[in-house]
Write a structure and sequence with these properties.
The chain is mainly β. The chain has helices spanning 5-15, 40-47; strands at residues 93-102, 113-118, 142-146, 152-158, 163-166, 169-171, 174-180, 187-193, 210-211, 214-218, 221-227, 230-232. The chain binds fe (ii) ion. Fe (ii) ion is lined by residues 71, 171, 174, 176.
Length: 238
Amino acid sequence: MPVSRREVILGGLATAGTAALTLRADALPTLSSGTLKRYPEYQAFADSPLPFVVPGALPGNVKPTEENILGPYFREGAPYRAKATPPLAKGITLVIRGRVWGFDTKKPLVNAVLDIWQADADGRYDNDDPKRPPAKGVYVNRTRVLTDETGYYEFETIHPGPYQTGPNAWRPSHIHYLVRKAGYTNLVTQLYFKGDPLNAKDEFIKASLVVALEGVKVGGATIETGVFDVVLSAAQKK
Ligand SMILES: [Fe+2]
């Protein structure tokens, strides 16, 4: 009996993370529909200009992006994917995009690696409970993205929730970044959101890392978008 595409995919997912993947021997190639549909509303969003970004050159008054604490929840090895969150994760959809620049050259950096990690809508990380550590190879609310040939990156996620760090201490909503590019100093930082009432109570926040979000209507829903450019300092020569 022929195997459907869905069965092939589910068969593959069932073994993901536990063994090397092998396509079923009786699977057939995916059929081509022969036409490429355009979706105007999504295209308009994708084509919209990036504020704060001058194509081809970094404005002279822009400084290297400020560092911020790593925090206790980073995990090495997140998968490369455009969406940090699981399908249908609770929360407001958020798209962050921007470019990674070299401070020395004032030019975009191609193939820079951005590690992104954050809390879910309830302020929880996938590894914040020692009694329930995440399964090996399973990364929730984490991703890695590469910059393209223009230094551009983007990812989809949900607006992270704040979390409590002490009896009267809170961390406002934020997204963690670790940005790496050969020849440049690794940057550990975080982005915050303008207007978050908890920003004023946080001891780690820096004004230069606060991003203003914009509401965009996509497919009948309103999502949030924000632009976060990253400027890396050249590594010290030894
Ligand atoms: Fe955090």
